[in-house]
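testing teh design pipeline on a random one, pls ignore if ur not involved
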């Protein structure tokens, strides 16, 4: 099969981590007789410096014509320090989410056995934890009315949700729970927020349609605490845009590193796959950032295209790199490998899936890793 993939590498470490996913997808294509046709589009600060627009029309057209979008990272410190800037790189990401209708953001947080000892949490707490966050992505306070009074002393951010917006993502979360351990936790602040009460009543009303799914409700502050106290209790977490943003960064600790957390953002017609981490400007161009969040996003992309054997092969290659400690400094501080070396190793594993004789010194030397 032939698949069109839009590649929006973006800012900071985006280009170098995305490059590793591209290499991995090319190898998967070679092994399984697919062609992944990559078309690059500008986004974020990189697009602003060339066109003035963080999401040029041409990029949108490339995304709309693609079967899936591989996204890198967005954000540049140049704009972070200017609180009055009218245009920000992040607006490119918000418009992409909005225009492509990517209302459902899926962030799996599964502990890798190989990283348990380096977790800041106790082994018995993280071992075996495996949950997935369904974050609403095109509504709520991110997209509400924003105002700053003329004298600059009062600001306002509105948060709005409709039953329809809640139902469409809740259906996906319930369905996902059905394929897993059949537990769904709605995270909100229904003790404070009107929108949260609407989330609760809407999701509660849907529970009859999914009688096998055990539905529970948890306030967001309590959820933040429970995530690190007892992450194993969670299966599918459903939540709004802002709570989902915060809790998914926290979930990164459970996965072992933010450099490992992948995400899929899906709508009716389009889907974007991107790491949860940001653009990490301090690491940009240094060939040191962890490419696994991007590569695991490529795993989700393959699953979305229903290429399950291919997804499994890529996932196995990631596991193998972790097993052998062929990892970047965030998870292997004593003998770190570079971004591109980790990517090379993953590629080698895909070409030679069954070979377990790996010469680690060859990875460092840039030679073939499979002997
Ligand atoms: C994320 C990011 C974005 C968000 C930023 C870059 C605006 O943190 O995808 O989680 O807040 O949604
Ligand atoms: Mn975030």
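output:
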């Amino acid at each position: 099969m032939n698949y069109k993939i839009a590649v929006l590498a973006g800012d900071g470490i985006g280009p170098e981590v995305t490059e590793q996913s591209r290499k991995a997808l090319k190898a998967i294509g070679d092994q399984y007789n697919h062609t992944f046709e990559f078309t690059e589009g500008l986004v974020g600060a990189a697009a602003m410096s060339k066109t003035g627009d963080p999401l040029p029309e041409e990029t949108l057209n490339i995304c709309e014509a693609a079967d899936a979008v591989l996204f890198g990272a967005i954000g540049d410190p140049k704009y972070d320090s200017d609180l009055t800037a009218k245009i920000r790189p992040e607006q490119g990401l918000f418009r992409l989410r909005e225009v492509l209708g990517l209302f459902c953001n899926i962030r799996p947080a599964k502990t890798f056995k190989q990283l348990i000892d380096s977790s800041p949490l106790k082994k018995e707490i993280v071992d075996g934890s495996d949950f997935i966050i369904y974050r609403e992505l095109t509504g709520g306070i991110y997209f509400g009315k924003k105002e700053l009074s003329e004298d600059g002393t009062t600001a306002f951010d509105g948060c709005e949700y409709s039953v329809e917006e809640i139902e469409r993502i809740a259906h996906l979360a319930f369905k996902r729970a059905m394929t897993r351990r059949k537990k769904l936790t709605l995270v909100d602040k229904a003790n404070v927020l009107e929108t949260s009460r609407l989330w609760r009543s809407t999701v509660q009303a849907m529970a009859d349609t999914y009688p096998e799914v055990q539905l529970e409700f948890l306030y967001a502050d309590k959820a933040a605490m429970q995530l690190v106290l007892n992450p194993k209790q969670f299966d599918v977490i459903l939540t709004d845009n802002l709570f989902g943003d915060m809790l998914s960064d926290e979930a990164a600790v459970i996965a072992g590193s933010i450099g490992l957390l992948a995400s899929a953002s899906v709508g009716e017609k389009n889907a974007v796959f991107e790491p949860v981490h940001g653009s990490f400007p301090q690491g940009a161009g240094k060939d040191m950032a962890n490419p696994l969040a991007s590569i695991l996003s490529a795993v989700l992309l393959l699953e979305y295209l229903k290429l399950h054997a291919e997804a499994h092969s890529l996932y196995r290659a990631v596991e193998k790199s972790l097993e052998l400690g062929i990892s970047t400094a965030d998870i292997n501080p004593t003998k770190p490998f570079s971004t591109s070396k980790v990517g090379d190793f993953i590629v080698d594993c895909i070409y030679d899936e069954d070979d377990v004789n790996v010469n680690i010194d060859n990875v460092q030397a840039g030679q073939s890793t499979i002997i």
